[in-house]
Design brief:
- The structure is a single chain.
- This protein is 48% helix and 15% strand.
- By secondary structure, the protein is α/β, with parallel strands linked by helices.
- The chain has one domain: NAD(P)-binding Rossmann-like Domain (Rossmann fold), CATH 3.40.50.720.
- The strands form two sheets. It has a seven-stranded parallel beta sheet, with helices on both faces.
- Helix 1 packs across helix 7, helix 3 runs parallel beside helix 4 and helix 4 packs parallel to helix 5.
- The protein starts with 5 loop residues before the first strand and ends in a 9-residue tail after the last helix.
């Protein structure tokens, strides 16, 4: 029998967040689910069990993040698993995105994640246990046409998670970044995805094609969010959880393709790469 865990899940109103909350509750754990508005709607979806607390939280508001973490501790006494899921996508060529669009995406996907993480970690450090699970994307593993801005926020999440995993090691806390490919959620709906207000015709053959593809593939993506949620609960109960967990064959294939190209570049430019040290450095 595993100890009953307390989960803190951001962006729980739909998609991955909702499915992870359902799965955690079904496993017998307690869940603090955060939403930006209409908490009663999520409560009704989850059946309002005694081991559920729904809290309003805009992750871009650091004070709200600390208040929400405090409410979670007051209700359940601890936080064992933090799932940073809140965020949204932007479909745009890198050049097309405005300064405002870029900053707002980073505000939610990166700085919001940091707000919540800073709010929760003191409780985990005090207990000398916990698990931070950051929902990234295949776009955080490799650059994808049309997803450069969104992907860059997820590249940031990758770097933060890798560093945290090392910083947490002596404290009994784990960090995992999950990299889903295309999953059948509301991510490609207008409620979770914005498209740049500025469109440049020169990118019609690249980003334009991706815009068309995103419209066609919506609700037809290969990934099953229910199965992803089960995998998240599995790693939360693992004795040694991974730092990286690509989700879906498409995510794994794209990452392998990147690594093959990366290794080819290293082989081709090996002498240049290794020839930049001072001559007095002994190899």
């Amino acid at each position: 029998m595993t100890e009953q865990k307390v989960w803190f899940i951001t962006g729980a109103s739909r998609g991955f967040g909702l499915e992870i909350a359902k799965e955690a509750l079904a496993s017998g754990d307690k869940v603090v689910a955060t939403v930006r508005k209409s908490p009663e709607l999520l409560t009704s979806r989850l059946g309002n069990p005694d081991n559920l607390s729904v809290i309003i939280l805009d992750v871009t508001n650091e004070q709200q993040a600390h208040e929400a973490a405090g409410q979670a501790i007051e209700r359940f006494g601890k936080i064992d698993v933090l799932v940073n899921n809140a965020g949204y996508g932007i479909l745009s060529a890198v050049e097309e995105a405005t300064d405002k669009e870029v900053k707002e995406n980073f505000e939610a996907n990166v700085f919001g994640l940091l707000n919540v993480t800073r709010a929760v970690l003191p409780y985990m450090r005090k207990k000398r246990s916990g698990h931070v699970i950051n929902i990234s994307s295949v776009g955080g593993l490799t650059g994808i046409v049309g997803w450069g801005i969104y992907g860059s926020t997820k590249f940031a999440v990758e770097g933060l998670t890798e560093a945290m995993a090392k910083e947490f090691a002596p404290l009994g806390i784990y960090a995992t970044t999950v990299e889903p490919g295309f999953f059948r959620t509301e991510f490609l709906d207008v409620t979770s995805l914005i498209r740049s207000s500025h469109v440049i015709d020169d990118y019609a053959e690249t980003v334009g094609e991706m815009r068309s593809f995103a419209t066609k593939v919506n609700k037809k993506q290969p990934g099953d969010p229910v199965k992803l949620a089960k995998a998240i609960v599995l790693i939360a109960n693992a004795e040694k959880p991974p730092v990286h967990l690509p989700m879906g064959k498409d995510s794994l294939d794209l990452f392998k393709e990147k690594m093959e190209l990366f290794n080819k570049d290293i082989e081709t430019w090996y002498d240049v790469i290794t020839g930049t040290d001072h001559d007095d450095v002994i190899s």
